[in-house]
Design brief:
Elements lengths: L4 H4 L9 H12 L7 H24 L18 H17 L2 H30 L1 H9 L27 H28 L11 H25 L5
Helix pairs in contact: 2-4, 2-5, 3-4, 3-7, 4-5, 4-7, 5-6, 7-8
C-alpha cells in the first residue's frame, strides 16, 4: 500500500538530520565553551558504548523477518536508537556546552518519537500478541532495573556476516568528528586566544591530532566508496 502524502511528510527536525544539527552546534560551541578532563573522559566512554551497541545490534538484527528479541533487543526494544543517543550525547559533552547537553534529550524524543511509534505500530500489526508481550517485558529506549539483567546475553544471535562495510565507515566518521571537536578546543585555547595561528604549524601534538582526523575520514570515505563499487568477481 502506497504511503499517503501525510506519511511521507517529514517534520523539519527528524532523526535523519538531528545528528547533523547536533554536530554543527557542537562544533560552534567548541569555539566558545571549555572542555575539562571529566567531560572528555565521559564523552569517550559514551562514544565507545554507543559504537559497541551500534555494532552488536547490527549483527543481531534480522529486519522484516522475525521479531528480534535476543541480544541487545532483550535489554531494550530499540537498541539502535539507544546507541544513537549515546553517540550524540558524547558530541554534546565534547562541545563543553551544558545547554546543548540539557536540551538534547528533548530534541531526541521530538525527532525519534514519530519513527518509533510508526515502527511499533507495524510490528504490532505483524506479530500481534507476541509483540504485545515483548513490549510489556522490555523497555523502549533505555534499560531499567529488570532488563539490564539481560546484559550477559547481549551478543546472543550475533552474526558478523550482518555487519556491512558501511558500519566501519560510520564508526570512523564518529571518531573523526569527536576528535575534530577536541581539535577546535585545543586550537581555540592555545592559538586563537593568543592570536598566534602561525605557531600552529609547529604544534606537533595538534598537527598529529589533525592527521589522525584526516586518516579516519579517509578510511570512512574509502570504505563507503568500496561498498558502492560493483562486484567484479
Amino acid at each position: 500500500m502506497a504511503e499517503s502524502a501525510e506519511d511521507k511528510k517529514q517534520p523539519f527536525l527528524n532523526r535523519s538530520n538531528l545528528r547533523d544539527l547536533t554536530i554543527i552546534v557542537a562544533l560552534a560551541s567548541a569555539l566558545v565553551f571549555n572542555l575539562d578532563v571529566v567531560r572528555l573522559f565521559l564523552s569517550f566512554l559514551l562514544l565507545s558504548f554507543g559504537c559497541f551497541f551500534h555494532y552488536v545490534t547490527k549483527g543481531v538484527l534480522i529486519r522484516n523477518v522475525v521479531l528480534c528479541k535476543d541480544g541487545t533487543y532483550s535489554v531494550v526494544r530499540h537498541p539502535y536508537y539507544m546507541a544513537n543517543y549515546l553517540i550524540d550525547s558524547a558530541f554534546c559533552l565534547l562541545s563543553g556546552n551544558v545547554y546543548l547537553l540539557l536540551v538534547y534529550p528533548f530534541l531526541f524524543y521530538w525527532s525519534y518519537g514519530p519513527t518509533i511509534r510508526k515502527e511499533e505500530k507495524v510490528l504490532a500489526e505483524i506479530h500481534r500478541e507476541d509483540f504485545l508481550r515483548y513490549s510489556l517485558d522490555v523497555p523502549q529506549i533505555f534499560p531499567d532495573a529488570f532488563s539490564v539483567k539481560s546484559w550477559r546475553a547481549i551478543i546472543n544471535g550475533f552474526s558478523k556476516s550482518r555487519i556491512t562495510p558501511n558500519e566501519i565507515s560510520r564508526f570512523a566518521r564518529f571518531w573523526a568528528t569527536a576528535l575534530f571537536i577536541i581539535f577546535i578546543h585545543i586550537v581555540r585555547e592555545d592559538h586563537f586566544a593568543r592570536l598566534n595561528l602561525a605557531a600552529l604549524r609547529t604544534d606537533y601534538s595538534s598537527m598529529a591530532l589533525l592527521f589522525l582526523i584526516i586518516v579516519l575520514m579517509t578510511i570512512s570515505l574509502a570504505v563507503r566508496s568500496k561498498k558502492k563499487m560493483p562486484d567484479t568477481e
